[in-house]
């Protein structure tokens, strides 16, 4: 029986998944948490095979959460289950350590299939994301500026867009304020903007979050 931890702050999501997998012969939901940091607390106390997580979490960016879980518990597999844009977050989630990326627009049967495939040591991604990962591995150029951002740059951009100060970002990402400032400057250069307001407006316009 695959032990599944659901990470999502929307009750309709985890209650729906509880109901869907209730009579499953292969998958059992062993718990659900609302925040990224709570994942580590949970897996210390309970056995978990797969973490099914939203990437947009309240206390910790999903990419950071994936990295921390994989660092401390490399045996646990992670599937991102989200409404966030695949072409922006998909490859970064996989590079961070996730072994699956499923859009919430997909059916629950598709999610079930993804969980079984990941449990059996395979990666589950859409055909489009698979192509994107292939192009990335070949170092082909990607036209969209946001696709060229690293996972860490996306983390910093998300937190800046939430109105957090460099000091707060440094604490959350376990970086120095100087390093955060460097990432901020790099983001402005890569996205060709001259100030923080333009940076945030651009990310909102492109619907990154």
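^ Assign residues to that structure.
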């Amino acid at each position: 029986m695959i032990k599944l931890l659901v990470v999502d702050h929307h009750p309709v999501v985890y209650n729906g998944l509880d109901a869907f997998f209730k009579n499953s012969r292969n998958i059992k939901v062993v718990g659900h948490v609302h925040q990224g940091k709570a994942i580590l607390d949970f897996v210390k106390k309970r056995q978990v095979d797969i973490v099914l997580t939203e990437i947009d979490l309240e206390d910790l960016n999903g990419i950071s959460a994936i990295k921390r879980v994989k660092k401390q518990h490399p045996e646990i597999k992670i599937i991102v289950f989200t409404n966030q844009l695949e072409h922006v977050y998909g490859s970064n989630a996989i590079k961070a350590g996730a072994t699956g990326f499923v859009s919430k627009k997909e059916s629950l049967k598709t999610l079930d299939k993804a969980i079984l495939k990941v449990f059996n040591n395979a990666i589950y991604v859409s055909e489009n994301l698979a192509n994107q990962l292939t192009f990335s591995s070949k170092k082909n150029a990607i036209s969209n500026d946001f696709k060229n951002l690293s996972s860490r740059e996306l983390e910093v951009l998300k937190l800046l867009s939430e109105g957090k100060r460099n000091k707060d970002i440094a604490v959350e990402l376990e970086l120095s304020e100087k390093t955060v400032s460097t990432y901020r400057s790099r983001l402005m250069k890569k996205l060709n903007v001259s100030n923080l307001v333009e940076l945030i407006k651009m990310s909102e316009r492109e619907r990154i979050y």
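The CA atoms of residues 102 and 110 lie 8 Å apart.
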